[in-house]
UniProtKB/TrEMBL annotation:
GO terms for molecular function: copper ion binding. Keywords: Copper, Signal. One of its GO terms (biological process) is melanin biosynthetic process. Residues 1-32 form the signal peptide. It comes from Streptomyces resistomycificus. Pfam families: MelC1 (PF06236). Belongs to the melC1 family. This is Tyrosinase.
Length: 124
């Protein structure tokens, strides 16, 4: 096994730093902010996905939104979403499968529901 030289160590560190910076930039691009929203929230969306209407928009925050300031609905019923510390999003339906955006969380929930209705989540 070749010995680790100072030059090789510095080159490896530079390559890792470049890769980390590229990943961070790509993650920021996934959260394209709506210029009319607050706190850099993801852009609003309203679409039909697999026959279900999914809507997402910045919200007033507080309450049972876990401080995200973003609300997601499937067929008019709120899907509770939460943004993780790493910038990924989860929902009560797909809690252990983080995704890049609230839209992706809504789509993952529709996939997981397999046609079943989303039941309202009781607020504390």
């Amino acid at each position: 096994m070749p010995e680790l030289s100072r030059r090789r160590a510095l080159a490896a560190a530079a390559a890792l730093a470049t890769a980390a910076g590229t990943q961070a930039a790509a993650a920021q691009g996934a959260f394209a902010a709506d210029p009319h929203s607050h706190h850099g929230a993801p852009a609003s969306f309203d679409e039909v996905y697999k026959g279900r209407r999914i809507v997402g928009r910045p919200s007033a925050g507080g309450g049972h939104h876990h401080g995200t300031g973003y609300a997601v609905f499937i067929d008019g019923v709120e899907l509770h979403v939460m943004r993780n510390a790493d910038g990924s999003w989860i929902s009560v339906v797909s809690h252990y499968d983080p995704v890049a955006t609230p839209r992706a969380a809504a789509r993952a929930a529709v996939d997981e529901l397999q046609g079943a209705a989303l039941m309202p989540f009781p607020a504390n």
